[in-house]
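Narrative progress, year one. The postdoctoral researcher (J.K.) led the effort to move from monomer predictions toward full complexes, under supervision of the PI. The following entry was the first complex the group processed end to end, covering 849 residues in total.
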Amino acid sequence: MQYNQRLLLKGNEAAVYGALLAGCDCFFGYPITPASEVAHTAARLFPKLKRTFIQAESEIGAINMVIGAVASGRRAMTGSSGLGISLKQEGVSYLAAYEMPAVIIDVTRGGPGLGNIGPEQADYFQLVKGGGHGSYHCLVLTPNSVQEMCDFTVKAFDLAEKYRMPAYVMADGVIGQMMESVQLPDPRPYTYDPEWKMGRIVDGKANYITSIYMEYDDLEALNRRLQAKYREIERAEQCAEEFMTEDAELVIAAYGICSRIAKGAVSELRAQGIKAGLIRPQMVFPFPTNSFEKLLSNGKAKVVMSLEMSAGQMIEDVKLALNCKLPVELFNRMGGNVPSCAEVCEAAKRIYKEYVK
Amino acid sequence: MSTEKVKFGRSKVFFDPFERRPGPIKTNMHYCPGCGHGILHKLIAEAIEYYGIQENTVFIAPVGCAVFAYYYFNCGSISVPHGRAPAVGTGASRATPEKYVISYQGDGDLAAIGFNEFIQAANRGERMSVFFVNNSNYGMTGGQMAPTTLPNQVTMTSPYGRNVETDGYPVKVCELVNALEAPVYIERVALTGTANIIKARKAVFKAIENLRDRKGFSLVEALSPCPVNLKMTAEQVNEFIDTKMTKYFPLGMLRDRSAETPAGKVPEAPVRDPEDVKQLLFTAKEGSGEGPATVNNSEIFNEERRIRVSGFGGQGILSLGHTLADMARLRHFNVSWMPSYGPEQRGGSASCAVILSRKAIPSPLVDSCDLLIAMTRAALDKFGYQLKDDGILIYDTSAMEKPAVKPGQKVFGLDALAIANRIGNAKCANSAVLGALAAILGKFALTPEDAADYRKVFTEAITESFRKKPQVVEQNIAAFNAGCDEMSSQLV
């Protein structure tokens, strides 16, 4: 039987398709603009496959339902935006401590506070730097197309399970709301049955899951193990697209919708004789430091411009990756405003003039 | 005090010894002398064994003194965030319906920080049994005020006694739950003295029996002694519970609908076989734009073409854009469709941007367009500035006079709603607009072959959208044709 797997979908819808095709059994969520279509699509499609959808009483309820389902040995996910993600942070810290996989879709909006429903990228700190209490990280994938919303959700499940930790798919209001053609992958054969799930009988004893370690040395040991895992992830899983960076004198760093605008701007700037390039992190934890180190080793780049829809959050990681060996300038919009290609070109030319010629 | 003969031995649900308990003591529990947790643990363990559900029992441990319940119960266990046990239990119960979920919680966990998770799970009638330990104070953190602390009761955070004017009255959990429709069984018991413990045992057994029979939500609230934090002897604390606590928290069964509630069935397993998933998730491939017969060569799409569709909510603005985008998908163009979802959609206006191109599309946002479709005067006023100097404007003649445009711009009017009404379905107005667009592109931009294909791909897109409503497909095609004819006659 031949099926139509090339559909016109919203980013929010594509993420749910990706989850189902990756073998996700349960969705728990609470509606919030601009992420609501994630819940709408899950409400429609999960029951179709006799899988579980619950509209939880809150984002706190939702993330804890995820904990219950994942601890039971099932794949589970949730989705929200900005302030809803803030509410989930308690549960995410527990997931990190339990060393349990889960996938969380964050379709970011304007903040702080209630902010607005326009697109922003100001969830970077809370997703990439931990967000909840304790020294932990989550995997953070940053799609910039509807196709990647699907593909990266599949990948988020893979990485979350490989490393037993929560994974975010961090989109923004534009990537979540826009529609594009998507080629959906085939569903995977289902083989998931983690050995650590609660209740599995090992030597006559039922498995339990906990995050409380009364002995200081035990908790330190857990933390050291987590940190070793994060270092391994930084070594093995960096993921970025490099566009015309080989001879670039000015390199733009951007992810999500900003990276698409930046790519347009790079072509525009090249046409005007400016050697511009783009590093587009496809994951921001782990941060693609290798791509930035390459700029240092090939010696062509004179300046990096971090293009963000926040007050400048990723720029800290760009500076760390460059070890302060290249100047890094910020160009940003906030409040739901998306930078235009013309604005980006103008800012790039200004910076180019200052640092290159 | 009389001594009782030991009637029930150690439940096999308990580890023997408690080897998961750290430190040298493995034979008894970590609870303080005189604490009620040990008694309730024992009753639950006996019931699990009696009903033969140990292997599939999931015990959700709270934050509070019972956080280490997994030291004792040999069944699937998890210690969860403060107050969230019923939410975690919901996830476990739904994800693995073959399991029996116990949520074990104290008064801070259940009645304060986690009250929402608790009451919502009760209201959904989640398939779980909740054991609620009410000892009128926060035990683990050292005897602070709880939602269940009695009026004037002294605790670490109510050193002058609970003042009902500032701290409110004790929360009556069973009574609140009894206001809900879904719960099956609600009883309040006390863990004081043999007679009460025998009643408590019956209640615990009922709740576990309901669990085994998949009968939904059961709640057993146990008034429980906490002599250490209440700074009382065993006798004093029992008296406190029997005379003072029970005044506010009367013992007894508030609801038992277990007899009339039928035993629940295990829901069907999730569909996971790849072929079955495909069948349920994807539509069969037919007329979906595959193969060489569906190539469209129109040169105008070698460059990015930006389209703004705007008007009033209910005019089919978003779906007009969607049909255009779907037509592009069917011809393997790169395409993006972006709705206005921000403040601009408020007040009834609707707008979307569609970009078509054979090249990659950098941004789906449109601030200048090649084609503007304006179905209201307000829409034209708002987006007119975006139209390029050589752009095309299509407007609704019922909404405005022919607008003035720049010299290089082309402007065409159509009464789309009148056409749609003639056909008998006002919702087809947007297809009439697409028909008009076909005529315009046919006249100015497309080769005859590509113009014919435009009509064909419209039919494909509409047929796919309304796969299950052939009459709607026909009406839309009729509107398209009428819009095309009317515009063609204008263009002669």
